[in-house]
Specification:
With 58 residues, the protein is an all-alpha fold. The protein contains one helix and no strands. It has one domain.
């Protein structure tokens, strides 16, 4: 959860504690997918229904 923004969650490479010897893209994607499951479970426990569509920018 981003500080000051309780409805915004961010997952990125900062979850990887050290440099990997290979391209970390798949590892980062897997961590983000796993985090999304936990985020959805947390929202469901709070009775929040997440929006499935993403509005276009602007």
């Amino acid at each position: 959860m981003l500080r000051g923004h309780p409805d915004l969650f961010v997952t990125d490479a900062s979850a990887v504690p050290a440099a990997l010897t290979v391209n970390p893209s798949l590892t980062i994607a897997a961590l983000a997918e796993r985090a999304s499951e936990a985020i959805l479970a947390r929202l469901a426990a709070l009775g929040v229904t997440p929006r499935r569509e993403i509005p276009p920018p602007g």
